[in-house]
Structures are given as C-alpha cells and as structure tokens.
Amino acid sequence: MKSHSIFFCRREVCNLSAGLVGLLTTLSCAEPAPWPSFRGPQGKGAVEGAATPREWDVSSGKNIRWKADVPGLGLSSPVIWGDKLFITAAVAGGEGEPEQVVELKTGLYGDIESSTDRGVHRYRVLCYSVKTGEVLWKNTVHTGKPTIARHPKASHANSTCTVDAQHVISCFGAEGLYCHDLDGKLLWKKDLGKLDSGYYQVPSAQWGYGSSPVIAGDRVLVQADVQQDGFLAAYALSDGKEIWRKGRKEVPTWSSPLIQEIGGRRQVIVNGYKHMGGYDYETGEEIWWVMGGGDIPVPTPVAGHGMIFLTNAHGNLAPVVALKEDVKGNLADVKPGQEPMGTVWSVGKWGNYMQTPLLTGDLFFCCSDGGIVTCYEARTGENYWRERLPKGGYTASPVTSGGIVYFTGEEGDVQLIEAAKEYKLVGTRSLGAQSMATPAIQDGALFFRTRNGLICVAVP
Fold first, then answer.
1. 329-334 and 286-292 as β-strands: parallel, antiparallel, unpaired?
2. How many domains does the chain have?
C-alpha cells in the first residue's frame, strides 16, 4: 500500500510537471494579443499592464526597432494580427507612373474647400512584418479618379482596416469595401455606393469618407453617415452578403461603430448628431436613440463601468454624456440645460471634435484639437484636471499602456502623460514627420504611422 501510494504520488508529480511544461510551452508559443481594429481590442485604445517605451529618438535610432516607407497618402491607423501589420494608402498616379506628391495640410484652420488632387489614384492595402517592417504584400484594389474629393487635412484612405485570424477588411468609401485573407488573397469586394461625408451645410465641399468598419463575430459592421441615403449595415464576413441595413437620417459623420454586449444582447453603438444610438447586432432593430450636441460627430463611442460615453464638438455645443448602458427608447435631446434620460453625468463643454476619448481604469480623458486635455473621474464626471499640451494640433486619438497616455500631435510630437489624477507631463518625443493616425500597441511596442512611413518603437 505504501509503495503504491509512493508510485501514485510520483506519477501525479510527473503528470503535474508535464502539465506545467505544456502550459509554459503554450504560453511561450502564444501569439501576442492582436490590435484588430481602430483603437485596438473592443475599441478601448488601451493595453493594461504592458510597459511601453517612455523614451526614443528617431534620428539616433534609440529604441527604434524599425522604420518603413509607405508610398502614397493615407491616414488609416495600423492594425495587427500575429506578426502582420495592415494599413491602407492611396497613391496619386496611374499604374506604372511615378508617384505624384500631394499636400497634407495639418494645423488649426477652418477651411472647408476640397483638395485639388483629383487625378487617377491607386488604392492599396499593405501588409508589413511586425518584427522587421518588411513589406509582406501589397495589393492595389482599385485604380481610378476619386469619386469624392478629399479635405486637404484628409486622404483617400482614411478608414482603418479591421482584421481577425482569417480576414482583412479594408474600406475606401465610394471606392468599395474589400476582404482579403491574411496572405493577400482577395476573397470578396462590395460596392457601397457614393459615400460623401462632406459638409452638410455646403454639399459642394467634399471631404472624403472616414468611418472604419468593425469585425464582430461572423459579420462586418459599416456606419455610412453621408450626404444622401446614409445607413448602418451588417455584412456576412464569409462572402460580403448584406444581412441587414438600417437607413439613417443623419448628417455626414466620420465616427465608427462600437460593438458592446449589454445584458446578454450585443449592440452596435454609434455616434451622431440627429441620431446617436444603439442597434441590435442580430437584427438592426433600434434599442435607444438620442440627438443633439456637436453637428459633425467624429469620435467613436466608448463603453465601460456600466456606461456609454458619447461626445461631439462642432458648432455651438461640445458635450460629454455618460449614459447608463441599459437605456432603451427615446432618451430626449442633448441641449443646454437638458440631459437625456439615463444620464449618469454630463458636461456641456470640453467635449471632443476629432479624437475618440480614452477610458483607462477610473480615468476618462478628452483632448481638443488644440491639445487641451481634460481628465475626469469616469464614474462621476468629477474634473480632476485640465491642461494644455505643448505644440497644439491633435487629430489622432490617445492610447495608453503601462500607466502612460500617448497623445500624438499632427506635426509628429508625441506627448507622454501619466495616467493619474494629477497632471504630469513625462516628456515629448518626436517622430520626425507629420502624424495624424492613431498608433497601435502590441507586446510592449508602439507602432506609429507618419506622413510617409511606419515607425516601430520598442525597448530592445
């Protein structure tokens, strides 16, 4: 009996050891977490706990893992799956012709007129190695003159890709929606019609299209708030077949949908001016809706702590509204002196025009185009601090990891702020080029897109 017990114990120790070895092997072989869409996992813009660089120098190469050139102009953000990074770009010039240099006019200005580069463009999806920056593949999905002109501060490739283990979805607005596999094979494409997200008060001022698609489950969600016949739609990921479409009587917006499970029911949550709201993922049925605020919404909704955070800031209003996530029906309007039903907290000013806010832990950050950052207590709306960042002109949305919030300025100066109740500027780091795309984070590395390239920042 004793010997049997000893044998049993030895056997269990061996089995346990083998199990631990297997677990460690699995963990060591596991791929880094993906950054699969605009603002990463669940659109949060956050990787909790992973330490990312606080110092780098592009000119000397300090903490620069690699740099890569990107032909053409594009403002789509990098997305990552495994060891592959994906972006889009539009190259001015026809096939076989040299690339034509086009202007990207950054800075704080109010011009509404369209850019004049309306010749033939090559619309491309590009795949880079996360480890080396090598181009793994590049596909031209469309060649032709733009259907819709762009704003001088925009591009013909604004929408960020969305990716899973088998699919890469890219959107070029009026030039179509495309699905590739991760090796670059085109699986399907779809004509979305004439998507014009220009200025609704001056329809001749065309600005292009900027909403990014999102993969959720077995479908792709597309928000297309445009001058005419706007819609929210779900397409089958397998073949692009339309599952449902809901018309939206909305002014043109540039915001992207957020997919959130609430009370066991998945919702597609969208920003808007005439129609912010939540739609049922399965059917497209409206669950709740509200109108008002700024009249050209760009920020994507944010969710957390049992709330949905909405902001917009153009025209006379710039609200931030935190709603209970289980709201239903018509919640009334967002206007001075009135809060929608289900509001947990709100402020009537200091909301965002371009950038999607950042929720990290109990802190909620909003940043203006001029670089004024407001830090709130996420659950109550208490204002902890409000400070102006150096070197104004901010379009990219902030991201965070390892207790640092990264604010990327349009001229390529990245401000590092502690994610804390008190304001502390850790430092300013330069990318050496214009940058308007939201960076990606994976495995302790930062991936920035600049005017003509990609930069991977990582501690060796």
1. parallel
2. 1
Tell me if 13 is assigned to some domain.
Answer: no
Give 410-413 contacts, CB < 8 A, sequence gap 24+: 410/106, 410/107, 410/434, 410/435, 410/436, 411/106, 411/435, 412/450
**Structure-token match 């709603």, residue found:** 323
DSSP state at residue 306: T
Q: What is the spatial distance between Cα 400 and Cα 424, in angstroms, rounded to a whole number?
A: 15
Q: Strand 307-311 to strand 302-304: parallel, antiparallel, or no bridges (unpaired)?
A: antiparallel
Give the lowest-confidence range in 6-15, 329-338, 442-451.
6-15
427 or 27, which is more confident: 427
Least confident segment among 217-231, 332-346, 349-363: 332-346
CATH code of 37's domain: 2.130.10.10
Gap between the Cα atoms of 460 and 458, Å rounded: 6
* Per-residue confidence (pLDDT) for residue 30, from 0 to 100: 60
Q: Could you tell me the two tokens for 324? A: 């209970």
Q: Which helix (H) or strand (E) holds 15?
A: helix 2-29
What's the pLDDT at 351? 94
In a domain, residue 388? The reply is yes
Cβ burial of 459 (10 Å; 0-12, 13-18, 19+) is middle
pTM: 0.92
Strand partners, 163: 168
Bridge-based pairing state of the strands 168-171 and 177-180: antiparallel
3 state SS of 309: strand
Dihedral sign (CA 145, 147, 151, 153): negative
Average pLDDT of the residues of the chain:
92
Residue 39 lies in a domain: yes
Domain assignment of residue 255, given as a range:
33-108+116-457
Measure the CA–CA gap between 110 and 108, rounded to whole angstroms. Answer: 7
88 part of a folded domain = yes
DSSP structure class, residue 57:
B
pLDDT (tens digit per residue) in 277-288: 999 999 999 999
pLDDT of 3 reads 34
Phi/psi class of residue 307: alpha, beta or left (left: φ > 0; alpha: ψ in -120 to 50)?
beta
